[in-house]
Amino acid sequence: MSEEKLSESTTRLRYIDPALKESGWDPEKLVAEYEINKGQIVPSGKSGTRNPKLIADYILQLGPNYKIAVVEAKAYDLPHDKGMQQALRYAEKMNLKFAYATNGQKIEEYDFITKQQKTIDRFPTPQELLQRVKGHLDFDEKQMEVLLDPLDRKTNDPSGIPREARYYQEIAINATTSALLAGKKKILLTLATGTGKTFIAYQIAKKLWNTTKPHPKILFLVDRKTLLNQAMTDNFANFGEARHIIRRKAETAYEMYFALYQGLDVDKEEGELYKQYPKDFFDYVIIDE
């Protein structure tokens, strides 16, 4: 088979895989054939059909849960930038900072930070992309350490299988963490019912708790007792003895607190319960609505 007629799979094996490896994208930092989602469900009559899965040829990541770039591959004899529109679409969907297209000979890069596109002769290394993101965020080493800290995989779904974050959950977790590290005081996450808001809240809280000494004090507020009990015993179970439900009396020896809105705002002889805590007692307050 001539070089000009190599298939996409052969081009990847012979040229693209070695080029990525040469730039330092080892198996821990690279995911091939990454399934973004299982395909949109399109209603049809009383049932529906599912569109084809969205699968990226390669995803590059700076940490286990911090994806940074997508690479779309094309056959050796096709233009090197033929897959660029597809790469851009995937990158925008996953909130990635860089998109690449290649035929194994040349590489096309789009940088979402600078809004610039150019042809390059090698893939940037993980350290190079890390420095570009770090400069864009204006973060120091400690802030980047928090941002890149892996998500907790000890939480299980109802079947007992370790729960993996979906791509949009990773986006929400990373975007919120970045905003908090940048000093934002108020952040609003809007997600549909059933998309895992409490799971997202847990991962953000655990990430901040894991990477900060002394541990921050976090308050999780809900409006229904069932949600409070579910969060306490299920989603946030891995906080262990650091957990406490606020009832009747202000306790200060814990780090992960749970409360009902109405439970903090009830007239008692000693005054409203929330007033028993100093204004700066909680480092973070998560309101689950």
Describe this structure in words.
- There is one protein chain.
- The protein is an alpha/beta fold and about 290 residues long.
- The chain has eight helices and twelve strands.
- The strands form three sheets. The protein has a six-stranded mixed β-sheet, sandwiched between helices.
- α5 packs across α6 (about 195-210).
Q: Please, how many helices?
A: 8
Q: What would you report as the Rg, rounded to the nearest angstrom?
A: 23 Å
Question: In this structure, how is the largest beta sheet organized?
Answer: 6 strands, mixed
Assembly classification: single chain
Secondary-structure content class: alpha/beta
Percent helix, as a range, is: 25-40%
Summarize the entry for a quick read.
The chain is of the alpha/beta class.
Brief descriptors of the model:
elongated; 6-stranded mixed beta sheet; 289 residues; 31% helix
Present the secondary structure layout.
Elements: H1 8-22, E1 30-37, E2 41-44, E3 47-50, E4 54-63, E5 66-73, H2 84-94, E6 98-102, E7 107-111, E8 116-120, H3 126-137, H4 141-148, H5 167-181, H6 197-211, E9 218-222, H7 225-235, E10 243-245, E11 256-260, H8 261-264, E12 284-287
Parallel strand pairs: 5-6, 9-11, 9-12, 10-11
Antiparallel strand pairs: 1-4, 2-3, 4-5, 6-7, 7-8
